[in-house]
Amino acid sequence: xxxxxAFSAISSAAAFTSRAxxxxxxxxxxxxxxxxxxxxFPCGDDEMPFYALGVNLAKQVxxxxxxxxxxxxxxxxxxxxxxxxxxCGTGISDGETILMTYGQELNKILQERSAGLxxxxxxxxxxxxxxxxxxxxxxxxxxxxxxYYSMTEGEGDQPAVTDTVEVHYHGTLIDGTxxxxxxxxxxxxxxxxxxxxxxxQEGVAMMKVGGKATLICPSDLAYGxxxxxxxxxxxxxxxxxxxxxxGRK
Length: 249
Prior knowledge:
The chain contains 9 helices and 7 strands, in the order H-H-H-H-H-H-H-E-E-E-E-H-E-H-E-E. The longest helix has 41 residues, at 95-135. Strands 1, 2, 3, 4, 5, 6 and 7 form a 7-stranded antiparallel β-sheet that branches. It is of the alpha+beta class.
């Protein structure tokens, strides 16, 4: 993680892109209804668009970079202080001078802390895999490191990596946090098997139609040291419960 990479997201986040726009293309009344389970909004309708900009900036920069995991509360307060003073023009020092003077030191700090964090996340994943294997005698660990545990045996042929398959799935981190779930959405997913993460390419190819299995994918069979957005941390081991449907082509 470099200083440029960390802060270049601000320019793209300053105006909502076409990719992000649908998330905000809802009427206020609908948004209030959607938020009922998450609690009330922190501001009134006239103020919320500006609050939303702050949330977008945080997700673009802090969420993807994992600043909360890399810094103490006191250090995050300094980040917010620098951001606020620079954007409001109230800082007592020139921003470019600050970046030129301390940018390399910041890069070093982030790189060192990121490497340590990824290492710990991988170790926790390895411990989770071993515990799962110890608790489930029928679970199989393949040569690639994938853990496959058949919950329900299916029937028929197994798909090839060139096939398009249809599945229901529920994906969690090793602490049980749900990051994606077609089950929760109530809609199956069809996709070319060769176009997904390696753990799915291998694991789904081991299933037959009608079968259900648990797939545990170490980071090198999932999203690696980059992670994915603000939901899947760098180095994360992922657990999926996958049901194979008859959607093969």
